[in-house]
User: What shape does this take?
Amino acid sequence: MNAWIAIALTAVGCYTVKLAGLMVPAGALERPLVRRLAALLPVALLAALTAQQTFADGRTLMLDARAAGLAAAAVALLLRAPFLLVVAAAVVVTAGTRALGG
Amino acid sequence: MTAGKPDAAVVRDALGVGIAVGLSGFAFGVTSTGGGLTLAQTCALSLLVFTGASQFALVGALAAGGNPFTAAAGAFFLGVRNAFYGLRLSQLLALPRVLRPLAAQWVIDETTAVALAQPTRRGVRIGFTVTGLTLYVLWNLTTLLGALGAEAIGDTDAWGLDAAGPAVFLALLAPMLTGAVERLVAGLAVVLGVGLLPVLPAGLPVLVAALAAPAVLWARGHRAGKGGR
Assistant: This one.
């Protein structure tokens, strides 16, 4: 039951913020500073999420096989590999590093 | 408006992202049922929440024994970024008001990244719709398959599937790092996001990291103002 409560709250909350973003009047974004800010926010969020999901387990920081996997993904990106290949490189190298005891 | 790229190229980009990320729903299905949620709960999350980071956060918090309200709060905080994506998208998509409640469910990292990469409104709309549809269908399908296959696959970390999430984020981020300001914002966000992780409640560090964007803009504006005198 607790899980269903959490799921319902998350579903309603997440949908509401998605909709709120779309419903704000377009005029609110006409100022150059606001436009610049809206463009930079995803950069900050994606960078933070990438780092957190690579170097943390819950709230504990750690360096493990995922770092090797992400390094492989970064190399794939520099080589202009397609999206699926970038993700596959991360998964394969992470699994390989773990198999080798990393 | 510039001539832009052909529709087929936009569709190809959108399918690439939609399929790759859609397939990673498998990792979510496995993680969720492995963490103790039922098949129905796992599928309900992908259908109704449909924003990967929040789903993973909720499942992790519940598996760790967190109460439903704290767990939902963490997932909600992670989902708040979608409001900022929506702000940007509503301007580019220019959707009629009646369509916005339908489009809202697809306002996530991946659809935003694909849509923002398109040079024309037509491209933005095609990119958003194709990515959203592909991702929604595949993410839910692979969530179901992952939940069903959780027992067969055993330890998902041994398969390296926990690296899929951050790799997806990195692949979305890379094309956005076009200038010094973007790289500075990303660097500061990494320091804030990782540095605050051990001290703030789950979900908050990523929101504080978002402040890197206004902080860098403010610092540059301040410096430019002084330099102009």
Q: What stands out?
A: Residues 32-55 of chain A form the longest helix (24 residues). The radius of gyration of chain A is 19 Å. The CA atoms of residues 23 and 55 of chain A lie 36 Å apart. Chain A touches chain B through 72 residues (CB under 8 Å).
